[in-house]
C-alpha cells in the first residue's frame, strides 16, 4: 500500500533529519565510507515511488517510529536513534551490498553450447525464491548469437570464434553481419558473458531453498525496485535479459560495478551511454564515455538486456561509489583473503566472520 502524499512528505522530512545528523560518522578512520550516505543513497536511487515508500516503511520500522505520525515530536532527540540507525546501515551493507559486490566478481564461463541454446534459455518455469544451477553454457551461447559475437561496448569480435571461422574460410571469413573479419577496424578479444545481477545471488547453499541471509538480500533488492526479484529468480537469472557479452576486462569492471549503462532517451530503446568511475585516462580502448545501441537478435527470438535490470545495476554502482561503500567492501574482501589483517583489529574480523558464516562467496571462490 502506497503512502499518501502527506505521509510521504512527512516521512521524508524525518528521514532526512536523521540521516543528516549522522552524516559525518564514518565507519572507519582509514576509509571514506559513510553509513549515513549508504542509507540515504539507497533511498534516493530506488527506482520508483513505490520502492521508495517501501524503503521508508522499512526504515521507520527499524527506528521504531510510526510512519503515520505527522509531527516531529518523536525525533526531538536524534541521538536516541544512533544504535538502530547504524544497525540498519549494517543490515543493508552485510545482507546486500557486501555479498552482492563479492558474488558479482565472477560469472562462471563454461564453453558455449549452441545447439538449441535459444530454446533452453527461453524456456522453463519460474521457481519461487529457489537457487539456480551453475551451468550457463546455454546463456553464453545465446548471448554470443544475440550480440553477434561482439562485445557490446568495445565492439571487438570474439577471438575464439574468429579463429574458428578463419580456419574454415581463411581470409574470406565473415563476421555475423557479412563483413570480412580481416577488414574489421576493431581488434579481436576473448569475450565472456556478464550477468547484470550476479549469478550467485540466488545460488542455494544446500537443497533447493535459499538461506535466510540471501532471502534478506532479495528483500533489499525489492526495496530498490519493487518486485524486481521476479526478473531473476530461479532459472530466470540465467536468461539473456540478465546478461551481456563483454571483453574480459570490461566484464571485470562491469561485475565490480565500475562500469554502468545509462539510457540516452526513452525514444531510443536499447541505446545507452556507457560510463565508468575509473579515471578517463585509464580507459581508452574504447574511450569512455561511449554511446552504444545494444544488439537485437533476428526476429527478437532472444531477449535483449533488460533496461530495468541495467537501471538496477546503475543504481547499485552509484550507491557503492558515492557512499564509498565499494572501496570499503574491497578492503574487507582483501582482509578476508588474509592480505591485510592487522593486530589492531582494523580488518573488522567480526564482520568478516559473519559474512563467511552466512555462506556468501568472496571473489576468490566465485
TrEMBL record:
InterPro entries: HNH_nuc. It comes from the Eukaryota. It holds the Pfam family HNH_2. Residues 184-262 form the HNH nuclease domain. This is HNH nuclease domain-containing protein.
